[in-house]
Amino acid sequence: MILLSNIQDGTEALADGASGEQVEKTLSIIELISSGGPSGIVIILVLFILLIAATYIYFERIFAIKAASKVDSNFMNQIKDHVSNGKIDSAQMLCAQQNSPVSRLIGKGISRIGKPLEDINTAIENAGRLEIYSLEKHVSILATISGVAPMIGFLGTVIGMILSIFEIANSGGSIDIKSLADGLYTAMTTTVGGLIVGIVAYVAYNHLVVRTNKVVYQMEANSVEFLDHLNEPI
């Protein structure tokens, strides 16, 4: 009985020790960033500012492009009816009411009616370049952020590794794990932060390019339709 009691006590002690070793440690994002030291915090702050800028540009442009793509399905039919009947003023008024890239291109072409078709085409092309420039405003910043953010994160990685190597070189045979960990935290957190911001900006940039190309195609299709109507024999 005494032997069984000792075995039971030993088993309970081992169970208690095992449960004590299995205490789970957690690390919040704020603690993870602060563990990287001043240099890591500065780089993460810069990346956070770039993320805010990329998010703002994306939503500002996506709403602008969405508004620019809205064209009445009956718009071109009305324009052709007005032009065919010689109601140039009514056609120009209709374009002014629409207030979209397509309507502004057609309005520019209508204002040149009476001149050679080549002059009308040139005027529409020049107006189209201005509309495309307006649609692509600030979009290039997203492309820059998508390329710069990972490089900034890599800069933090290099700084973190330098700090770790410096601590090892000056440890005098006894390495301070805490100081060494700070450098590694800087290296890892900035790399992850830079990649996240870069990926977000890259995806946002490509989505805006696709949406812009759809509006440009819409502008080209309507311009060609308008020029073809002017070129039709009366």
UniProtKB/TrEMBL annotation:
For this UniProt entry, what is the primary localization, expressed as one broad class? membrane
Q: Where is the MotA/TolQ/ExbB proton channel domain?
A: 98-220
Q: Which UniProt keywords apply?
A: Cell membrane, Membrane, Protein transport, Transmembrane, Transmembrane helix, Transport
Q: Where does this polypeptide localize?
A: Cell membrane; Membrane
Is the Cytoplasm keyword given for this protein?
A: no
Is Transmembrane among this UniProt entry's keywords? yes
One matching Pfam family: MotA_ExbB
Concerning InterPro entries, the annotation shows: ExbB/TolQ_transport, MotA_ExbB_proton_chnl
Coiled-coil-forming residues are none
Q: Which domain of life is it from?
A: Bacteria
Span-the-membrane segments of this chain are 41-59, 139-163, 183-205
Record's family?
A: Belongs to the exbB/tolQ family.
Q: What is this protein called?
A: MotA/TolQ/ExbB proton channel family protein
Which organism does this sequence originate in?
Winogradskyella marincola
